Amino acid sequence: MRVDKVALRAAHDLGLAAWFGGYYMGAVALNGVSREVDDPTQRARVANAGWFRWAAVVPVAVTAHLFGAGGLTRIQGCPGGPTALGRLRAGITGAAMLATLESGRLGRQVVRYGDVPVATAVQPIAATPAPVARAQRRLRVVQWLIPALTGSLLVLDALQQEVDGGTRLLPRLTCRIARRVPFLR
Prior knowledge:
Layout: H1 3-33, H2 43-55, H3 58-76, H4 84-112, E1 118-120, E2 123-124, H5 130-164, H6 169-180
Antiparallel strand pairs: 1-2
């Protein structure tokens, strides 16, 4: 057992787990609980206070995941260039990073308008100013997009561990799929 490989795998997996778990918890609990605040002008403030605390952890989680992924790729090598699975994972990771950045941008946009009435952190009401309502509607989608993308990376990891198991079956399988899907070429 190589210690460097274990450390890289731990960074990869812990970073991805934190990235997925934090956004999933936020979508389920943090945004949902904002409806419990009696004053509708304080609901976004309460949820955003929690999200901005989480925002300090996000770069650490994403960096750990990327560091681990890059290190594992260097150690394991990739004869003949990146596999279709590697390209798929890179595409999903890129999309998750963009969604994460967009989530932060939209959250800051909501905060910029101050204490405005909202139903929840991601649901406007009739009295919500139009720019805040637009940002909230986008946040409502992005809040689920991030855990969906990072969760799919977790599923791909599990699939690779189970199917590949050193047999190189999964890369052959994904290469066949990639030949049929234009954006994976």
